[in-house]
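B., you asked whether I could sanity-check this one before it goes into the benchmark set. Here's the sequence:
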Amino acid sequence: MKSTLLAAALALTATTAFASAEKYVLDSSHSQVLFSYDHLGFSTTYGMFSGFEGEIIFDQEDPAASSVSVSMPVLEMFTGWKPREDHFMTEDFFGAAEGDLITFTSTSIEVTGENTANITGDLTMNGVTKSVVLDAKLNKADNHPMANKPWAGFDATTTLVRSEFDLGQFAPFVSDEVQVQISVEAQKAE
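And here's what the prediction gave me:
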């Protein structure tokens, strides 16, 4: 009898956890990936990606059961100086063409605090896939005051070694490490 009750409780828990996971889609107008790197010791140079697509399966009751999947076109990189952007798209770096994407798909989430987690996932960039860890924070999950629907916002950081993605031109003079800051908003899917 006890094993039957335990099995029923586990089944109910699994069903409840599954039911609380909800799909959110990124708000492209309020989601950015910023990156920075040391340029010859003289300055810190910045760039960004925005307008990308993705979805979050968000489980507020069991955040470790959540997942994220994002893609962004390489050609949407913005650095503030067109010759730099053009150079990044050459064979020295991305050799980018229309349709080339950078993607991230989570493989696990480790909750580290009340609103924080380490999100491990596969980052594919320049044809190379590596596991990376995002140090993530839930900023807010609430009803959006203008859209009048559930909304969530997250920030995350990580450090990438660009040579691991065959993007190591001019290293170590131009730093091989790239600091990445991510801020996204997502709305509950219809």
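One thing to flag: Helices lie at 2-20, 82-88. Otherwise nothing jumped out at me.
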